[in-house]
Write a structure and sequence with these properties.
This protein is an all-alpha fold. It is built from 17 helices and 2 strands.
Length: 338
């Protein structure tokens, strides 16, 4: 009976002394594996907790809508990004057979749902269910690198920088230059606006990429889109650091925006009847980095966040696009969008 009572108490990490939830497999401070003995005693408790999570999901909405997504990568596979949110939610409404789902499959479906909400710009829904997703992953024995990356992403959604770094380090403990660990660390540097850290991590990522991407890692296949997006972003940043023929003042960014963008996005990027506001949390750097703006100008964008219609490609020199993006970021910063 004494051992069973321990389950309801906090568990102290033997390495750093941090108090953790009784069901935690790893220390939230240092990542050390803890409480192996209790883990062996409570497999039934894990099942009960997982079932309670799934019951809560079914109560708060249609289980088919909430969990009916394929277990794929972060972007592009969780829902049709060209559909408006109201249309996306009606897809895959057939409920999954829970009796045939493993704990990992259930956790992955929750993960995909959170990432789909994040893709739609529904920050409140993403942050509401991210803690539940984290709890579901913590119930999995011998979680692999892909699962650790998922846990890192969930903590990114919650802006838990310290926990993101813990999971990044746990990945690096097995593979020092793992691209997804570097991905997590880079995103934290973006979140904290640590320019020096971004430069350092960017160089390590680009240097590690050729060798690492050739390795047939399961998690690289699942998250190839995210890896390639970061690689393109870093390459663009690297190119744009080349000196221009003439230094142009910040005022030029505003004049270029006024000439090329204001008709749809408003004089101060506040939006109009023709297009969405760019000074908005949807376009914050940690959700739409600079590379997404370059792609929008070069290739155009199909409507997915808003109902204004598709954006056509615009013919404008890349150096000018860089100044426009800088101006938009200044407006966002002034408005508290970070």
């Amino acid at each position: 009976m004494a051992k069973n009572k321990k389950i309801d108490k906090k568990v102290v990490c033997p390495k750093c002394g941090t108090k953790n939830a009784a069901k935690a497999k790893y220390c939230s401070n240092c990542g050390t594996q803890i409480n192996k003995a209790i883990d062996q005693q409570i497999p039934k408790l894990k099942i009960v907790i997982l079932l309670l999570i799934l019951m809560f999901v079914s109560i708060t909405g249609s289980l088919g809508i909430f969990l009916g997504f394929n277990n794929d990568s972060v972007k592009g596979n969780v829902a049709d990004k060209n559909l408006l949110p109201s249309q996306s939610l009606t897809q895959n409404s057939r409920p999954p057979d829970l009796s045939k789902m493993s704990p990992r499959e259930a956790a992955d479906r929750l993960f995909n749902r959170v990432m789909a909400a994040s893709e739609r710009g529904d920050v409140n829904e993403a942050r509401r269910f991210a803690p539940m997703t984290i709890q579901a992953y913590e119930l999995i024995d011998n979680i692999n690198l892909d699962g650790l990356f998922h846990l890192g992403l969930m903590n990114l959604v919650l802006k838990n920088k310290k926990d993101v770094m813990i999971f990044a380090q746990r990945i690096k403990d097995e593979v020092p230059n793992h691209l997804l660990a570097l991905f997590l660390e880079y995103k934290v540097a973006v979140m904290t606006q640590d320019a020096n850290k971004k430069i350092k991590l960017g160089k390590i990522f680009l240097k590690s990429y050729p060798k690492e991407i050739k390795i047939d890692r399961e998690e690289y296949v699942a998250h190839r889109i995210s890896i390639e997006d970061l690689k393109r972003t870093l390459e663009i940043v690297s190119r744009n650091k080349q000196p221009l023929q003439k230094k142009i003042s910040a005022e030029s960014g505003s004049s270029l925006f006024l000439k090329n963008c204001s008709m749809c996005h408003g004089k101060y990027a506040q939006g109009s009847k023709m297009g969405p506001p760019l000074v908005h949390k949807v376009y914050a750097p940690d959700h739409h980095d600079d590379s997404s703006f370059y792609r929008a100008v070069d290739q155009g964008v199909e409507a997915h966040h808003w109902s204004f219609g598709n954006m056509p490609a615009i013919k404008i020199h890349r150096d000018k696009v860089t100044l426009i993006i800088s101006y938009i970021r200044d407006l966002q910063l002034a408005a508290g969008v970070k």
